[in-house]
Design goal:
By secondary structure, this protein is mainly α. It contains 17 helices and no strands.
């Protein structure tokens, strides 16, 4: 018996009856021989961790565009905090930690440069629309590995596709990530806003602080405990009514006081105009994209979709670099 088979037997014996067992996966689009060491979801987790799109997240905006300071979150540190929160909850509920981690690590792979400002720009420019959760699936199904994709299991792709607020993940592990994403970004964005001097802890309405806690640490503790206590041996993941409503209200507070705050978002118009210029340039000059992407056109892919693929994969710095290359005059020299 292989190590993988031993692990699968352990899952069957000790995980919750509601857990997604590795041996019960719906499988991959392209069948592969099983690994003798790793169950399928652990293998997916490793593939995501080692892919290029994951590494680029370290230079993509979370909330603050190109902040001056080493401690502001990026899209990568956000992803890691989602993963940690989700794994804590999954482990406590005896659910599949490998599946939870794989979904969490992959949920934002398709995010644009400049955060949601970039996402809004591409959604406006592309006639088919653009959403980062759909793009994350496209990354793992089509764009990684020179067009071969990562060939992940159905359960991981389902969790990535449905991590948005209106999503409905098919597994409890995916449902956990959907909540963990919000738990993470609400709290770490408050932490970053306080660091930036845009908010103070006392600015948060007293009712939310009374219910959830008066610091990032206390709020995380409250929310994670609520997720665990509400969902032991239950077939669906949910929060208690009081805690869930307080988190939703706090999220609304953040939209009103941070996510649309000119002090934090003052450069977003410039970022969107930059991406608009790049989009127009590549639509007119698709040969200017890398060979990997320009070659997709000869394979029958729609040009505006490929242009969105190329731009959304850029880091903030690379998008700025390409804009300067195309649109900023260079000093003349002999």
């Amino acid at each position: 018996m292989t190590i993988r088979e031993n692990t699968e037997q352990w899952e069957n014996r000790y995980l919750s009856p509601h857990a997604a067992l590795s041996a019960g996966t719906k499988g991959r689009e392209r069948p592969e021989p099983p690994c003798d060491i790793r169950p399928v979801y652990q293998r997916d987790r490793d593939r995501i961790l080692h892919c290029k799109s994951f590494r680029r997240l370290k230079h993509k905006t979370q909330v603050f565009l190109t902040p001056r300071g080493d401690h502001y979150r990026t899209r990568l540190t956000h992803t890691l905090e989602v993963s940690q929160t989700a794994r804590t909850i999954a482990k406590a509920l005896r659910l599949n930690e490998d599946l939870t981690e794989a979904i969490a690590l992959g949920h934002d792979l398709g995010h644009t440069p400049f955060g949601h400002a970039g996402e809004r720009a591409l959604n406006r420019l592309c006639s088919r629309g653009f959403a980062h959760y759909r793009q994350s699936v496209r990354v793992v199904e089509r764009l990684e590995k020179q067009g071969r994709g990562l060939n992940l299991t159905w359960e991981v792709r389902d969790g990535i596709r449905n991590h948005r607020t209106s999503g409905h993940p098919s597994t409890l592990e995916g449902q956990i990530v959907r909540f963990a994403d919000k738990i993470a970004y609400i709290n770490h964005d408050i932490d970053d806003a306080i660091r930036a001097g845009i908010l103070e802890e006392s600015d948060i309405p007293s009712e939310y602080r009374r219910i959830l806690g008066g610091s990032t640490r206390e709020r995380l503790n409250t929310l994670i405990h609520d997720m665990v206590n509400q969902n032991i041996d239950r077939p669906e993941i949910q929060m208690s009514e009081e805690i869930g409503q307080a988190m939703q209200d706090l999220r609304k507070f953040m939209f009103e006081n941070l996510y649309t705050n000119p002090a934090a978002k003052g450069e977003e118009t410039k970022a969107q105009e930059l991406l608009e210029a790049l989009f127009s340039h590549y639509m007119d000059h698709p040969e200017a994209m890398s060979e990997e992407f320009s070659g997709m056109l000869s394979q029958g892919e729609e040009k505006e979709i490929v242009v969105c693929d190329y731009i959304s994969g850029m880091t903030d710095q690379y998008a700025i670099y390409k804009f300067n290359e195309y649109f900023i005059p260079k000093a003349w020299s002999i």
